[in-house]
Amino acid sequence: MRRSIRLAAALLLYAALACAAAAAPKIQAKKVLVLDPMLDLLVQFIGGPYVSTSSAQTWGARDQLVVSRARVMSAAAMQKPLIVLDEKQYADFTGAARRRRGMTKTERERPLFCLFPAGTRTVPPVQFYGDPANLPFTAQKVMNALCAIVPERFGYFQRRLGEFNARLRSVLISGRKRFAGVRVLCLSEIYRQFFVASGAIVSSPTPGELYRIRSLARAGGWRSGLSLAEPLRDGRLIVCDWRTESAVRRGLTAYAGAVYLHPPRDEDLLFYIHHMILIMGSRLDQMNDKR
């Protein structure tokens, strides 16, 4: 008898919870457009379930940027809010031909949110995001833009900004602990400032090293590849990124033990940075074990 009563009570509770879930209003995510995949990840982080994003540039199968102008320049897209770093990023994307003939009335009236005034950004977007000093202020600006777009979610966006800054600080501290004093041969202009901020001793390839690096792409075999790479492997951590020529990248990783910093895809931006630190830290541990 008691067992039947408990079962009936459990069924009633389940039914009540199911009804409450069905009655709860579904979150209507606001569609927001961006121009690049890094800003896409940042808007996703701050916006959470209240924002859905679409980027004009996405990562292809070979880690190349694939551009879809229709995502942000179609007639339907003109009605949706577009967040950009600044007017220059938007002007560069629209192209010289469009600038010469001038903007249409629809383009002039589109909801465009520029995070920074003209002249603030002095490097290309990919390098801008690679400098950790730019991330907190950019996240703040993203929160301001989202609050203007979805003002009723101000409290949520503010909490997400606080979480972003706290986690970013933790990730950067772990980076400084791992790379302070480490010699880095950097073929990545994107993440050079990250290593500098982490206290690493950063160097660029000399002309002779560049010749060897390019020769690695044409190495005839394992022995010749190792011979070419030997002077490069002098205790330095070698890093390259997705903008490094693919053949050179393959030669560096195969013969010189370089770490390839792949682009962040649809993932948590801070988790990506932390993951890259772990990969490079693992490579450093391997190098130390061989000494």
Tell me about this structure:
The protein is 55% helix and 13% strand. The protein has 14 helices and 10 strands. The protein has helices spanning 2-23, 37-47, 70-73, 87-94, 96-101, 105-109, 125-130, 135-149, 154-179, 192-197, 207-216, 222-229, 246-255, 269-290, and strands at residues 30-34, 51-55, 57-59, 65-67, 82-84, 112-114, 183-186, 201-203, 237-241, 259-261. It has a 4-stranded parallel beta sheet. The protein has a 4-stranded parallel beta sheet with strand order 8-7-9-10, sandwiched between helices. Helix 2 (37-47) links the parallel strand 1 and strand 2 (51-55). Helix 9 (154-179) packs parallel to helix 14 and helix 11 (207-216) crosses helix 13. It is globular and about 60 Å long. The model is unreliable at 6-24 (pLDDT under 50).
